[in-house]
Amino acid sequence: MRTMVVGLGNPGNEYRDTRHNIGFRVLDSIAMNRRLRWRRLGWIQPLAWVGEDERVILVKPRTYMNRSGLAAAVVCRKHGIAAGDVVAVYDDADLELGRLKLKKSGGTGGHNGVRSLTAELGTDEFPRVRVGVRGVGRDGADLAGYLLSPFEDGEIDRVERSVSDAAKAVGSILGDGIEVAMNRYNSRGGTAAESSF
Description:
Blueprint: E1 3-7, H1 22-34, E2 39-41, E3 48-52, E4 56-61, H2 68-79, E5 86-96, E6 100-103, H3 112-121, E7 128-134, H4 143-147, H5 156-176, H6 178-186
Parallel strand pairs: 1-4, 1-5, 5-7
Antiparallel strand pairs: 2-3, 3-4, 6-7
Helix pairs in contact: 1-5, 2-3, 5-6
């Protein structure tokens, strides 16, 4: 059985480098490491970009953040993937930039993309990799505006390390299971560790 990894974000160049799109960036890193090519799912109205091999299906929804679950549910039905075999990767504005938090399941935490996934999959019982995007400018800033803003120049190195770490964390989930991955990453403060990915 393959695992589906869904990176949450918004399509379009205007959103590409924003904090809200770090889920897409993590999936791009995984695709590059696994040498997967993206293909478009849906021709009249594109639903997602999909990359796959015998072990994993990567999904970047093109339905915008608030409707991310629609694309994920279509791919699940098409490939017979259970909700428990879905891993969601997304931004967390309350988690410091450079930190990761892995969870087996849970609520939405106010994240609209996760809310859509939960609604469309019919459960919140799926693993997640929360990628911290909280920087210096977060305090007092409007949340929506903050998430849709690009990273500061001084944050870029941490962003790149965080994306790499999150890709490794996904690999750990796939290779070792969510419990091992949680122990590996959460106990290390959400920083990089060795994985078999």
